[in-house]
Amino acid sequence: MRRGRVLSALLAAAAVTALGVTLASGVGRPSGDAAPTAAGPVTQARSGTAPALTGTTLTGATFDAAALRGKVVLVNVWASWCDPCRQELPVLAAAQRRWAARGLAVVGIDIRDNAESARALLSGLGVQDLQSIADPQGTTAVAWGARGVPETFVVDRSGQVRWWAQGAVDAAWMEQRVSPLMSS
Amino acid sequence: MTLRRFLTLGLLVVLLGAAGTAVWRSAGPRPESAHSIAEQLLCPTCQGESVAQSQSPMAAAMRDTIDQQLAAGRTPEQVRRFFVDRYGPDVLAEPSYRGLGLLLWLLPGLTVALVAGLALRRRRRKPDGPSPAEAPAEAPPARRRPSRAWDAVAVAVIALVAAVAVASPHRASDTRPAPTADRNTSLQSLAQSLEDQGRYAEAAEVYRDVVTQRPDDRTRLKLAFALLRAERATEAAITAEQVLHDSPTSTDALLILGLAQRASGSPAATATLRRFLKAAPADPAAAEVRRLLAAP
Amino acid sequence: MIGQAGSVVLGAGLVAAVATTLLWSRVALLGVSARPARAATWTTLAMAAAACGVLEAALIGHDFSVRYVAENGGRDVPLYYTVTSLWAALDGSLLLWLLILAGCAVAMGGRRPGRAGPLRPYAMAVAGAATVFFFALTYFAANPFTAVSPVPADGPGPNPLLREHPAMGVHPPLLYAGYIGMVVPFAYGVAALLAGRTDRLSVALMRRWTLIAWALLTAGITMGAWWSYAVLGWGGYWAWDPVENASLLPWLTATALLHTLAARRRTGALHPWTVALACSSFLLVLIGTFLTRSGAVASVHAFTTSPLGPMLLGFVLASVAGVLGLLVWRSREPDSVPASPLLARESVMTGNAVLMVALAAIVLTGTLFPLLVQAVQGDAASVGPGYFNRSAVPVALVVLLLMGVAPLLRADRAADLRRLAMPAAAGLGAAAVVGLLSRPGVLPLTAFALGAYVLTGLLQAAVRQRRSLRRSGWLLAHAGIAVVAVGVAASSAYTVSTEQQLKVGETVTAGDVTARLVRVDRTAGRGDMSSRVHLELGGGADGRSEPALRYYPARDLTVSVPAIRSHISGDVYATVLAATPDGTAATVRLAVNPLVWLVWLGGALTALGATAAALRPPSRRRARIPAADAEAPVGAA
Asked: What ipTM, to 2 d.p.?
């Protein structure tokens, strides 16, 4: 009788503790709509061979990233309906101009977009020289494992994916993540 | 056994057979459709919505990917594998039942065992004389005189709560970082009130701030209008043209562009304003524009 | 100014609630007159009502210096939705919550004879403690009246999803009333544990209040499902989403409580597990509130993160620990009673109550599992409909099977199994006909069979009970559940849908229904931009269907407004997923959902039946027994 009561008290205490630990892990969890862009992009290391990247560019040319083997390739997922992309595209264009000689290629994947508005945005920002694959269904971006826009993947000279950034990248990020890959 | 009973039983047996056949027919594996696969995947950017439910562009892209892969002859299992390879195992809506996932079956099972045990405990015990004499039941409360000490403590508690309530700092909400949408809204309200006071140049600067965050047509038109009123017609014309480029049917953009061109003395003004009149002959501003066009 | 008034009222309410709790404990412990306690209860209600009134006044008067108005008000918003914005966001809905809670306390403490059992002072003190907590939560952590500076000229308006449909004025208050009604069985349960005894009147009161709260909750959940279907526009009505689960959990345990109370209605005794059930519904309401109001779980319906989390968590844990501690403290060896026959009323009802608890355990485990994984392993995990369909649906079907026995039950004797012949024949017949004409899958087929079996049995019982039909709310409630089961089975087994990008003039087909895209209208309204798609239906349905896609720049939110054309055989459900800017093409999802209306009908029948049972005057035989004579210790059975 007495022992039974002690046992149930212990069980009850264990149950409350378990419930408390479980629920408490929810308190610190950030809400889903907090934008990570405020403090730069969320960057994670990745590994594995880069998926294929072929298609038609916004200007109508055929494109195959296999031709870029040996270069550091920066793949950026964007769309004209995405606000942060407007700030990011000039950064990408500047990096391409600055580092093209050292072997950097920038390729955009323009997902679920109207080619007309995409071209308008590029010319409006003065970055028509960025080449982008038109991906009206977004399936190419899905094959790369993109979760939203803007997102950037960095592929090294041997064709391995090295970095994956969610949110708009900036010049400092380029310096920190992309530049070392070109010197190696 | 009476005839009636026999007939009833016979009918039940026949129906049982038919129902059994029906269940057996239904039990076969059901073909998986693109929709059912999409239901098993979670949209990576949403709050707990499946790919089938979500209206986000990425979820739509994932639905198209499923369609494409099924059309290319891949099996549903291969399609799921494809997504797990790219998005990790938590893209699957149904968790793995290994490791910690076993708890999903164990916890309800344990709860049921415990509850069933509790609920049925008395049924198993045989009556064996009177139950142990315990007296948790207190005697009904005797009518005692209210204790002074008790009242004093109660008043002290109430006073304490009141004191804490009064003393607690009530910070104004501006100390909390407002989400961007709210910030933009309050900026827009600020710009509006500046405009109301006739401080167009300042209002234009605030609008420009908002536009960098959220370049929607409405805000850009407000910016263009504020610029126009601040007598910065060239900038107004550029902004209006940008709006017009994105939404060629916007008559407000046409109107502002025309007025801006007119203010900066551009020869294109008349043509633009005529286009406006043609597109929106019933606009409240139309009469004024006609008057402007009629004037030399 | 008006904001300060609101804060003062809230603070006064907090103090009044503390006073109420203390005064009722005084009545309980010292046996003094309840008059001052009742006055304090009324004062608390007045303060809660005044707080709601002040916030409504600020909303209607567009006083943007008040934080809640600045965040949820808007000059463009129509008056009706301005009024309903009181519960469009967390802080305001807490005020509504307080109002209902205080109203509940007043009703519980009322002076009418027949309401005052010897346990009532204890129960009132417990309810008062809950009120104190919610006032404190509102006042310290989520005060909607704090000032905003600089004062904006306009606000963004309530979340657009919450101004799509007039049902917004009814659905949240109903659901909250259902949640908060559970405080009464909780209060009486805790009171029974505190006082260590119980009596017939208290048990009767508990049952009646649980029925009322259960009816409200049933209506609220049904409306929530309908809201999800008709307004949110994703095409279904139940997704096992955490917020939906949070509303289902107290419903399940309250159902179990009602059955255990009914099983032993004749005695005033409470088995410990009945007390545990009585307490658990409100505890689950609290856990659900924590989950959905603190941003702890990802859900479409959840409010975003707020500073409420830690405070709510503390209260949830303290309540759970308190109840468990009391249960352990009061636990004793149960008295023995002669076992009743296996198919007697008590056994079957207890069995069904155990299954209800099993369902609740499944739903709770599935809902908390992502948090558990987060706590133990630190990674994200998700539990989708797959798990619930696999685990909860079979248990629910067994519940239906037992429910079909209900009409045969006698209080003390074994059921007369011969009466099962007709329902069994109906069920098997239904399975045979449906299963030979189509292939819905095993679970839906079983649900059809069980639905027919339950309904036939209930019909038989109704015919038998013609004379006392007035007292048969339970028949209606059970029939409603069976109807819901058939509706859910039909709509999950036979729904067909197609998603396709259409150019103007092209056609999409789902089942036997076709829809041709006629044109896409793009309009810009005040505060929103919408693309309305005109579809011409053909095939199995005629007429037009005009779903729309609405974009709200102020919230950067797109809402897909479905167009539903209902027929007796089912709904033609069209939504727009995307529309091109030039209006020449749109991506349309066309679905045919058979018999969904049965779900709403069944929910309504159940709520009606429960209301009828709750409003039924207590039979004279029971009312005549003086409360004091019927006292019995807790734990005696």
From this structure: 0.82
